[in-house]
């Protein structure tokens, strides 16, 4: 495909998402299924452009003075992909499948710089107005800068699986992909964010992945898993195990010593844990699913650590899922708060006296984080928070946004 056709495809996907309230993934798939003529480079180009426009939806419309996907795409090419005006004009106007010639106003806007100094924080930071009080509560004056970092493209982080390898081996195996130490943790490895129109390296097809040497896991998620502390030889319950990202990190920290249990109230989400844990060389994991009767029998007040990676809005992961910030509603946020209180109350009885309950979210909002912890401690005076919570953000830590609190049960 030539550039003009690719740009029209990106505009079509963005319009389809809006008209039918589709997630980006589904709208891109629908386009891809119908576009047999599109090769892998075309698909990477279109999806990269769609995601970049979603990351910067408001600031692009603001700079272009119009609320259409046609101008947002042009703005993204100019200011995010660094195309010059002549190239944009040619792709829009000169090619048979292009979006159509630029207007004078569009050309004029594209000739200037992207200046967001006068834009209000939700525009400069690219998030919906209704979230501004939530962002302001956590970040105050720096909220536009924090949100702008959440609108950047994310690197691919890996966790060297110490049950099978170490960071040195993984760095060597993925040298050609530009692997570097991610910093902060000895076993965290980072591949740089891909160029705008390219796909991230398909690390899951690398032979080292099949051998279980590493997992794809954001550095923030790895740091959050580390809140479990020294757990080798202990009894550990991963109460919201989902697909097992944290489970495998906990397993590596345990070094196959002690007993790890994985549970999730939604059994379907746990489908991947068995093959993943086998590949990773985990031998001390028991999977407990709600398909069994009384799946957590025998674990009451027995756990040294109960890890609650709670359901949340996922606002800390907007770099990777930029459509989520536009789809989130106040009602969904409210619903999550109820789920978070419930999951903490359900998980707490498994902690033994003197044991620890770890509460983690990948959200930035205090309502899902500090407020839930405070409400829990009020309902459960036998627990206490002994250290300041963990807070990670793309701007300050170069990770996805994460929150974590360690709550100790009285001996
Ligand atoms: C953030 S996701 C977990 C991600 C997973 N820990 C990982 O690292 O890959 C939250 C999970 O909590 C589960 N969940 C929600 N409510 C729950 C409850 N009351 N009890 C147990 N699990 C629950 C959801 O099904 C979902 O899989």
UniProtKB/TrEMBL annotation:
Q: Which PROSITE patterns match?
A: SAM_MT_RSMB_NOP
Keyword match Plastid: no
- Tell me the active site: 362 (nucleophile)
Supply the alphabetized keyword list.
Answer: Methyltransferase, RNA-binding, S-adenosyl-L-methionine, Transferase
Annotated SAM-dependent MTase RsmB/NOP-type domain ranges read 146-411
MF terms in GO: methyltransferase activity
Where is the chain membrane-spanning?
none
Cite a single Pfam family from the UniProt record: RsmF-B_ferredox
The family note in this entry says: Belongs to the class I-like SAM-binding methyltransferase superfamily. RsmB/NOP family.
Which PANTHER family does its entry note?
A: NOP2 YEAST -RELATED NOL1/NOP2/FMU SUN DOMAIN-CONTAINING, RIBOSOMAL RNA SMALL SUBUNIT METHYLTRANSFERASE B-RELATED
This protein is called 16S rRNA (Cytosine967-C5)-methyltransferase
Which classification does the entry list for the species? Bacteria, Pseudomonadati, Pseudomonadota, Alphaproteobacteria, Caulobacterales
């Amino acid at each position: 495909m030539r550039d003009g056709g690719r740009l029209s495809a990106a505009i079509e996907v963005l319009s389809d998402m809006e008209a039918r309230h589709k997630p980006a993934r589904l709208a891109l798939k629908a386009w891809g299924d119908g576009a047999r003529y599109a090769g892998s480079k075309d698909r990477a180009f279109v999806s990269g452009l769609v995601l970049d426009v979603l990351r910067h939806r408001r600031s692009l419309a603001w700079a272009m003075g119009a609320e259409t996907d046609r101008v947002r795409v042009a703005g993204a090419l100019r200011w995010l992909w660094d195309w010059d005006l002549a190239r944009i004009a040619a792709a829009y106007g000169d090619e048979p499948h292009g979006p159509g010639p630029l207007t004078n106003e569009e050309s004029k806007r594209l000739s200037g710089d992207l200046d967001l100094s006068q834009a209000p924080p939700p525009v400069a930071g690219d998030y919906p107005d209704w979230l501004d009080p939530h962002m302001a509560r956590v970040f105050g004056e720096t909220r536009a800068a924090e949100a702008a970092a959440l609108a950047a493209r994310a690197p691919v982080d890996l966790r060297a699986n110490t049950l099978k390898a170490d960071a040195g081996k993984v760095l060597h195996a993925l040298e050609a992909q530009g692997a570097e130490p991610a910093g902060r943790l000895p076993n965290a490895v980072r591949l740089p964010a891909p160029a705008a129109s390219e796909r991230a390296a398909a690390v899951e097809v690398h032979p080292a992945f099949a051998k279980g040497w590493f997992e794809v896991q954001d550095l923030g998620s790895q740091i959050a898993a580390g809140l479990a502390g020294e757990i080798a030889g202990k009894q550990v319950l991963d109460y919201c195990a989902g697909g097992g990202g944290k489970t495998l990190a906990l397993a590596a920290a345990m070094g196959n010593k002690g007993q790890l249990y994985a549970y999730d109230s939604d059994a379907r989400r746990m489908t991947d844990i068995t093959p993943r844990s086998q590949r990773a060389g985990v031998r001390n994991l028991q999977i407990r699913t709600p398909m069994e009767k009384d799946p957590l029998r025998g674990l009451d007040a027995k756990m040294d650590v109960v890890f609650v990676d709670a359901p949340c809005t996922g606002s800390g992961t907007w770099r990777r899922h930029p459509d989520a910030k536009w789809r989130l509603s106040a009602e969904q946020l409210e619903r999550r708060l109820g789920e978070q209180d419930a999951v903490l109350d359900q998980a707490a009885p498994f902690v033994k006296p003197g044991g620890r309950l770890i509460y983690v979210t990948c959200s930035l909002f205090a309502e899902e984080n500090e407020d839930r912890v405070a409400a829990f401690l009020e309902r459960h005076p036998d627990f206490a928070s002994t250290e300041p919570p963990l807070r990670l953000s793309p701007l300050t830590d170069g990770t996805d946004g994460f929150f974590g609190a360690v709550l100790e049960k009285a001996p």
